[in-house]
Write a structure and sequence with these properties.
The complex is a heterodimer. Helices cover 40% and strands 13% of the residues of chain A. By secondary structure, chain A is of the alpha+beta class. Chain A has a 6-stranded mixed beta sheet with strand order 2-1-6-3-4-5. The longest helix of chain A has 21 residues. The radius of gyration of chain A is 24 Å and the shape is globular. The C terminus of chain A is likely disordered. Classes of the chains: A alpha+beta, B alpha+beta. At the A-B interface, strand 13, helix 7 and strand 16 of A face helix 1 and strand 2 of B.
């Protein structure tokens, strides 16, 4: 018997209409846990690097986390992975809700989808009965409307549905996959549309087993209580109505304009009233007592849910207030659009119009009101109508397709992907590394265990550390934090270790299925997360029966991290792509930054070009990667890790700016 | 007619719909507790409590399985509460043929809530323990009930035979008839 995992993949070939239930190798769990880790291994094995993201040979993988369906609270985030048409790299995507646990109960750890259906279809997974069904009647339907219609026609009110809307059908690069009030963004939406897969409905009524049931269950009662009672986990933005942080510090419009004194008491009162006058309740995801999702019924709109910073992006792109976002979030959810990247694309177009690069010919009857403009553009993009067809490819590609100097307005992308609209003064070195080298594309998916800033008040800082101590992988982090004075002054050694730890927790969350609000993302705020490197091994051991300790789990992180790196390196990712937006910080020091990047690559056991060395790969049991790299000439076999280079060599490199 | 006052402990799980966040931890915990052996498997489909969920209608109603019935009702009553429409099925714990709820997914047999009857007894049923939001709360109240000692049909018949023939004669006849079998 397999514990925690079901031991089966569901393999779907949409071109041939083939469906198979395939038993998996137990070694996959031991080496990669599950979720995104195993998905990366499947993509490595089965999608050759030359594969176009819109090729039928690209795979779209929906993975349950290893601990989904077990009693472990707050384990419910489904990973969706594929190769993204926007970045041509691995798409990292996660959605909360109920999908992953339901999939486990249907008897599968993941769904691996290849091929392309001749016309729009949806997948119906009812335990062992799996069907590819016609979805032409759902064409153009909203994501929630689709879910409702599917449940009705299947007479399965308990089916969990993940669907794309019009944006996904039209392969808009910023399209999301929507499931309940959760959504999976950053790449898989357009690929799902390309495969002509409108939705997946899952119903599962099978048992999930764990290795040490009673111990795990009792532990989970305590964990749940802790999660419920603690303010250090979950989305504090659901209850803290003071959102001066985003509005005063983030840049409005096309990540351009800061309004440092925007927030006021009067504004907060008005917005709070708008929220609570129209909020039905706050809901959570499977088996989690937190209430991160605000459910709003705004007059004339369908109910919609949002969490975190998702409520700010549309009105900040349009220079409007919260009521503007409340009017647009519902329709955007039905269209299936990512609320992080989409508004930036739209605001980018507004800038181009104001600069005269886009004209009335490109934007016939373009309104004058900033809010109406965003709305106008959104409708164009979703339908790929006129200029919308170009804008639908995201800022980076659109800028190059439009030309005429539009490239200059693409100032906030890294690896061709829209970054959070943050524009700051002095460099924060760990953030430089995270934005540069992160392969989860958004900083929120990389940062989190170590605070963003030194807490100025020493007493407060000590109080933070007191809660934070138990989550540390190593004592040195305490030292780094206590000795940290100015944000931009921190040693390279500390920056490398901090980046590594921040990443580690996300990689573990995304393979085991833990939610970042209980773990990887949240430690920086409050310090007292419920899941961390010191208790994860025990929890995973109880569930799986694996003999896993802290070092073993850390190695799994390193393996998954290097495998994701390798996937992207094999598709062409190199050092020159590891470049945060030029204006992310006002004060830049190229030499310092490149030295920091060198140090980080060394720390990671990567070459100067950011390629994992044979030594690094082999030490993690990734010999099949190093062999592939040697065969392709990505590695020559003569690389030494930069640490082994002579000082003279290093000086040479520095003079040439690192590369 | 004789009657006497008896004390009864009434156990109930109260449901506060306003506090439910729809997480379904109650289902998970119920299925674990009722697994054989205890906690050995998780499967909300085997749970005796289910959260009826319709997010677009802001509907989150935990209902507990009550009794089995062979026939379903028409289920057509619709209630509007605070502007939201609820089907009566949303509040109904009856295990009936018209819906796929509270039936063991393998055998189809009804699954009835027993308030986690256990030896030793639990402090609270497992679903209540799993609900950290107090949408589910457990309550034990002691109620005094006047129980009338009513004679049942057979006793009424025997009593009239005694009145007519006397107790001894009836006893003799009963003994004789029982020996004959």
């Amino acid at each position: 018997m397999r514990y925690a995992e079901t031991g089966y993949n569901l393999e779907i070939d949409l071109s041939r209409g083939n469906i198979e239930k395939v038993e998996t190798d137990p070694k996959l769990m031991e080496n990669y846990l599950g979720g995104q880790g195993v998905a990366a291994k499947i993509l490595w094995d089965r999608v050759p690097p030359g594969t176009d993201p819109f090729s039928p040979d690209n795979l779209l993988i929906f993975s349950a986390g290893l601990l989904h369906g077990t009693p472990v609270p707050g384990c419910n985030r489904t990973a969706v992975n594929t190769f993204s048409p926007q970045t041509n790299l691995l798409a990292h995507s996660l959605m909360g809700g109920f999908f992953g646990p339901e999939l486990k109960h249907a008897g599968y750890d993941r769904i691996v989808i290849k091929g392309k259906a001749p016309d729009l279809v949806y997948l119906w997974i009812n335990n062992d009965k799996v069907e590819i069904r016609d979805a032409t009647h759902l064409r153009g339907k909203g994501t929630h409307e689709t879910a409702r219609l599917i449940r009705e026609e299947l007479k399965e009110p308990y089916a969990q549905v993940a669907a794309i809307g019009l944006a996904g059908e039209n392969r808009v690069y910023t399209a999301s996959i929507e499931h309940g009030f959760s959504s999976a963004a950053r790449g898989p939406g357009p690929v799902m549309g390309d495969k002509r897969l409108k939705a997946i409905a899952v119903r599962g009524t099978k048992d999930v087993y764990v290795a040490h049931p009673e111990e795990l269950f009792q532990l989970c009662i305590e964990l749940r209580k802790k999660i419920a009672e603690s303010d250090d986990v979950g989305d504090w933005m659901a209850v803290d109505e003071d959102d001066s942080f985003h509005h005063n510090h983030f840049a409005w419009g096309n990540a351009r304009t800061r309004q440092k004194n925007y927030w006021s008491k009067e504004l907060q009162e008005r917005w709070t009233r708008w929220k609570y006058d129209h909020m039905d309740r706050q809901v959570g995801c499977y088996n989690c007592p937190k209430k991160c999702v605000n459910v709003i019924s705004w007059p004339g709109q369908k109910r919609f849910g949002y969490k975190c910073y998702g409520k700010d992006t549309y009105h900040m792109a349009a220079f409007k207030e919260l009521d503007y976002s409340y009017q647009i979030l519902g329709p955007a959810m039905e269209y299936g659009l990512d609320s992080y990247s989409t508004p930036q694309v739209l605001a980018f177009a507004v800038e181009l119009y104001e600069a005269g690069i886009l004209t009335d010919q490109d934007l016939p009857d373009f309104p004058s009101d900033s809010g109406e403009r965003i709305r106008y553009l959104l409708e164009k993009v979703v339908r790929r109508e006129g200029i919308g067809d170009i804008l639908a490819n995201g800022v980076y590609h659109a800028a190059r397709q439009i030309g005429k100097g539009a490239e200059k307005y693409d100032h906030n992308t890294t690896k061709k992907f829209e970054q959070l609209p943050i524009k700051l003064g002095k460099l924060n070195p760990p953030y430089f590394l995270m934005i540069a080298t992160g392969e989860k594309m958004a900083i929120t998916q990389i940062e989190g265990s170590f605070p963003q800033d030194p807490i100025p008040d020493m007493e407060e800082r000590l109080a933070f550390v007191k809660k934070w101590e138990v989550v540390l992988p190593d004592e040195k982090f305490k030292k780094y934090f206590l000795e940290w004075e100015k944000r931009h002054e921190i040693s390279n050694e500390a920056s490398c270790a901090i980046t590594d730890w921040n990443e580690a927790m996300h990689y573990l969350d995304d393979s085991a299925g833990f939610c970042g609000f209980l773990s990887s993302f949240r430690g920086q705020f409050g310090g007292g997360v419920v899941y961390h490197i010191n208790n994860m091994p025990y929890i995973i051991s109880l569930a799986t029966g694996m003999d896993l300790d802290k070092d073993g789990l850390w190695r799994i992180f390193q393996r998954n991290r290097n495998l994701v790196r390798a996937l992207n390196v094999r598709r062409g990712l190199r050092r020159e792509d590891e470049r945060p937006p030029e204006d992310h910080w006002a004060v830049r020091d190229h030499e310092f930054e490149q030295k920091l990047l060198d140090d980080y690559y060394t720390f990671k056991g990567w070459t100067k070009d950011g390629i994992p060395t044979k030594e690094t790969l082999d030490s993690l049991g990734l010999e099949y990667v190093s062999e592939d790299f040697l065969r392709r000439g990505i590695l020559t076999g003569n690389e030494s890790t930069p640490s082994k280079e002579t000082p003279a060599q290093k000086d040479e490199e520095l003079k040439s700016g690192g590369r | 007619m004789k009657s006497e006052v008896v004390k009864k402990v009434v156990k109930t799980i109260k449901v506060n719909l306003d506090k439910c966040n729809g997480c379904r931890a109650c289902e998970m915990a119920c299925s674990a507790f009722h697994a054989e052996p205890k906690y050995s498997s998780i499967n909300p489909a085997r749970s005796r409590i289910r959260v009826v969920t319709d997010p677009l209608n802001d509907e989150y109603v935990p209902i507990r399985a009550t009794d089995y019935t062979k026939a379903g009702c028409d289920g057509r009553r619709v209630y509007t509460i605070n502007g939201k429409e609820y089907s009566e099925c949303s509040f109904c714990g009856t295990i009936c043929p018209t819906r796929d709820l509270f039936k063991d997914p393998d055998s189809g047999l009804p699954l009835k809530c027993d308030l986690c009857n256990n030896d030793p007894p639990l402090e609270e049923p497992m679903c209540v323990q799993a609900c950290s939001l107090d949408a589910l709360t457990y309550e034990e109240t002691e109620e005094e009930e006047i129980e009338e000692l009513k004679l049942d049909e057979m006793e009424i018949g025997l009593k009239s035979l005694i009145d007519k023939y006397g107790l001894q004669k009836l006893a003799d006849s009963f003994a004789r008839m029982s020996q004959k079998g």
